[in-house]
## 1
Amino acid sequence: MKRILLFITLVGFLLLLVNCQQTPSTKPSTAGTSIVRYATGLSIQKQKNYTLVSIKNPWPNSTKTYTYVMAKRQAVVPDSLRMFPTIIVPVKKIVATSTTHLPSLDMLNESNALVGFPHLDYISSEKIRTRIGQGKVTELGNNHNLNTEVVLNIRPDVIIGYGIDNQNTGLDFLEKSGLAVVLNGDWNEQSPLGKAEWIKLFGVLFCKEAQAEQIFNQIERSYLHTAKLVKNVAHKPTVLAGAMYQDSWYLPEGNSWAAQFIATAGGNYLWKDSKGSGSLSLPFESVYEKAATASFWIGPAQFSSYQEMATSNIHYTKFSAFQHKKIVTFSSKKGKTGGIIYYELAPNRPDLVLQDLVKILHPRLLPNHKLYFFEPLH
């Protein structure tokens, strides 16, 4: 069981640090400039009576674009857009399928709109946990095997889904049953600010576009300010990441979300030159040869103590970062039912992640910052 949890944690780390069927659409011919600046998979075009939302690349190597018309009741939608699903906004009842969707609800003060979610124990949000305790959020099973009967009984105004490929029969069935389904591709964004910008999708759904824009702008300013602090640092400490699962060491590729954070925080990630935005799978010997003397070790899977690491694999103790107690983890900070807070909130708050990493790698630059997601291994 521990080995399975280790693998799940590693995969979650690398995806972060790293469906309804709809006919592939051509780009609709309509005026308007997207209000999205960083996210590559999201386009939002405000029109007079409606908003056109296009989502592309919702999963790696996807070739489909999903287009949705979001309009207030009684709004006039052009006949040329009738081929696309129309969603009446503002929505009042929403089903989400990933914890990364939930911080947007909290920040927009729309947590009360959540009526269903798969695996409720994964949720860390205190506001939503209160609603769960009151019986106001329904357990829906597994993301890719939703209890469709329960969802149909709830009758949400919209289901926010995500896909890892083009096979998602549950969402396909729900859409064919008349429910509105919107795919969210935030997890496939590699830019830290690109992930966070998906709050704007929720801004459209709740008719809170201005509030979503304001929240994102604050996050953007905070992130860029912190990045500027370390832009010209002379010394960039070397960084190792990840851990072993079975016979391989999993760690982020050079263009991944995690690698970008480390670079922006003034760190020298030892695999920064590797190609790709996913994960590397390497033999222990290869990792040890390159990172035995790394200054820091960030994100060692689910481990929360040095003793636990040593018990799991005595070879971990050979690394300088282990010997000098320079390992930091995000896995020990959890919600009331065990959900890892980092997985839920970090994609939405890259400014806090960056501040944490700068505090770890260059503590003198942020002397008053208290670590939010990370903490030293005990």
## 2
Amino acid sequence: MRSFVISLLMLWGVAQPAAAQSYQGCNFSEARIIDEAMRSAKDLTLKAAAVVGDTPDYHRWFGTYSQANADEVRANLKAIVTAIRGGGVTAQCDQISQDGCSAGEYAWVYADEPYLIHLCPSFFNLPVLERLQPGSRWSENGTREGTLIHEISHFLRVARTDDHCYSRLICREMASNDATRAIDNADSYQYYTEDVTYFARQPLTNKPPPAPRADR
């Protein structure tokens, strides 16, 4: 596979470090999409870590609340932020192949190979979080930011998560029955982050409406 590294300092002419350190096999358009998603994922995860507590959102994705469990969830979210901030993330754009991406797969990683994220063609068809409408057909498939949060959480240097479940319905059921597995589940961090950031003021299935916001 032809691969090359694209510096975002050259792309945008700014003095800020890129969210991803390098890109392999990605064209200009793909690199820009990845960088925007990575920056957004960092900001959203930081916000999610700040609001970890005994809340309906926490119960939905991580089960029964305890201080110890909440501390672990918060630490894992912060570890995701740290990994992105460190600038060591490499995004590799893969094609569908026997040894790479399968049809319909969005991304994958080897947990012991930080911080290389293999992104599949389907990743670029996912919406960004702000365009994801609750209850739409995209709700189960997630977002670009959520996918990056999911994958980064897998790394042994981050949260060492596994894939115990996929989809909102199944993962929500697992959280209600097994908090330990929920805290170890990559999709749980993705859904929690989506719910407490973008979806915080929007209706979701089986989620009570938020309290009215005071007029200013």
## 3
Amino acid sequence: MINNTKNYISRELEAKIKPFLSRKEVLAIVGARQVGKTTFLQHLFDGLQKTRKKSAFLTFEKEKDLALFENIEDFKDYYDGYDVILIDEFHYAKDGGKKLKYLFDTTKTKFIVSGSSSLELTFSTGKYLVGRMVKFTLNPFSFREFLLAKDEKLAELLNLKFKDILEKFNLKMAFGEELNLRLEKYLEEYILFGGYPAVVLSKTQNEKKKVIESILENYLLRDIKALLNLKTQTELLKMATFLASQIGNLLNYRELANVSGFSYKTVLEHLAVLEQTFTLNLLKPFYRNRRTELVKTPKVFFTDTGFRNYLLSDFKPLEQRNDAGSLVENFVFSQIARRELKTNFWRTKSKAEVDFVLEKNSEIIPIEVKYSKIASPGKSFFSFVEKFSPKQGYFLSRGLPNVKRIKQTEIFFAPLYYL
């Protein structure tokens, strides 16, 4: 639900983190800048304020909060008796992991911290807190969170009828034409401009573009440049722009090195940092036979399609684009990735391909994605079904919902926005 007094939009992470709030482990919430970590922590704090737990909310962007933590004994004495302490921007603390371990071992206080880079927070802090810290990632708004901000009633209906189509898909619950049209319109806005909260809440397209520009240039590129110790971000921008043009495609490392001017080794280092700063993801192939299937070369997807479109200076409607298929494939990946299921793609050396293969409860689930309204997923998908005999598979497109069976495999046909 939306809390109108504080403009808070419920995040899916709330349900995942709830069971851990009563446990002793340190909770680390990581994610790119501007995805709403401070707002999320504040929401957790507001909830704690309604209980009998004595809690405090700090941010290490404030010099006084950070200065007190620098003298860990003073910090410990000052907050003696507190049940929960939430610390935003924890990565600003020097030797933060070591000090947090000391507090964990010597007090009964529960700590919840946030940081903008998994490199800074997980590596430098986590190495001291092995077995003592649980990490959660806060992403830009999912499509359902986006929909909650745009049309609360429609979001409620979608969650009521299709809470998770990978768990349960009931054809009889399908929406009629008008609601489908509304959902498709919202889906297009989400794919074009992405899910960063400040972008979603902006009113006009020009405002959305300026906000994306600000987040990209003032936060993301600056952070990555600092992490990589780059003198300029020119080569990094070239590399990111090339990657933006390659979403859904096999990554060509040699071509990427040529375009950016980086060595092969440097390209790998930059890709690792782009992943660890929540800019993009490299999806590895699924295989059972090394002789006939790809085993190494990944595909690239952006965490947020709004960033991707900004890098290419292209916000045209999907109907006017040559890359609409790649964008909806990126959309599906970004929604699936939040489910924390093992996800790959399948491609044979003869170029038969299935967009995504999920592994869930020891079962494999193929998913094919198309932007068009065509009714069939194509030969490659059926080839996968024939070869591996999965219990179920999905074909996501703009077409109407349906269910078909091929031998023992049940194939669910669903509109993209039901995901």
